[in-house]
């Protein structure tokens, strides 16, 4: 299956991401929301980040680093979006390959999508429209498809 990404999808995602980035301490706020939600939805993901099952992850000094890396990775992906998606396809294939070493399973990607959307909902509140959500879903499907391909190569 090939995901059909429209120019409108790209514009909606880049615009909402730019709005979210205007939030004070955006990396910290978004990263914490994403990772805590990810660990709530998939507790086994904690070990991929070097956390044990019982610790309060937000109190671990590594948490801030992982949060920043997560937001930076998303920022990079959004910045590559444009009329020509071929450059980001190559990046996503490579990113998928690298995630194998981290112990990531393809079934974790939709969980990450839910965690990111949870963070965006919290940050943007009513500024995130139904169309925006639909565009994020399309972009995530595009990202997931290409990262999963990369994991299989």
Describe the structure.
The protein has seven helices and no strands. With about 150 residues, the chain is mainly alpha-helical. Helix 2 packs across helix 4 and helix 6 packs antiparallel against helix 7. The longest helix is centred in the last third of the chain and has 23 residues. The two termini are about 15 Å apart. The model has no long low-confidence stretch (mean pLDDT about 95).
Largest β sheet strand count, sense and barrel closure: none
Mean pLDDT: 93
How many DSSP H or I helices? 7
Class inferred from helices and paired strands: mainly alpha
Rg value: 15 Å
Helix content: over 70%
Contiguous low-pLDDT stretches (5 residues minimum) are none
Strand share of the residues? under 5%
Q: Distance between the terminal alpha carbons, to the nearest Å?
A: 17 Å
Following the backbone from N to C, one meets helices and strands in this order, namely HHHHHHH
Number of strands: 0
Task: Report the principal-axis shape.
Answer: globular
């Amino acid at each position: 299956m090939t995901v059909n990404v429209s120019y409108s999808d790209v514009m909606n995602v880049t615009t909402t991401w730019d709005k979210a980035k205007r939030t004070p301490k955006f990396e910290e706020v978004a990263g914490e929301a994403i990772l805590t939600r990810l660990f709530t939805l998939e507790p086994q993901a904690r070990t991929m980040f070097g956390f044990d099952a019982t610790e309060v992850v937000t109190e671990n000094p590594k948490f801030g680093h992982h949060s920043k890396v997560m937001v930076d990775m998303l920022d990079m992906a959004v910045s590559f979006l444009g009329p020509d998606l071929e450059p980001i396809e190559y990046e996503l294939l490579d990113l998928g390959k690298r995630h194998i070493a981290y112990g990531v399973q393809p079934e974790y990607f939709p969980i990450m999508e839910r965690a990111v959307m949870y963070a965006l909902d919290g940050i943007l509140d009513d500024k995130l429209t139904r169309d925006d959500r639909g565009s994020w879903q399309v972009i995530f499907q595009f990202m997931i498809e290409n990262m999963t391909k990369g994991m299989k190569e």
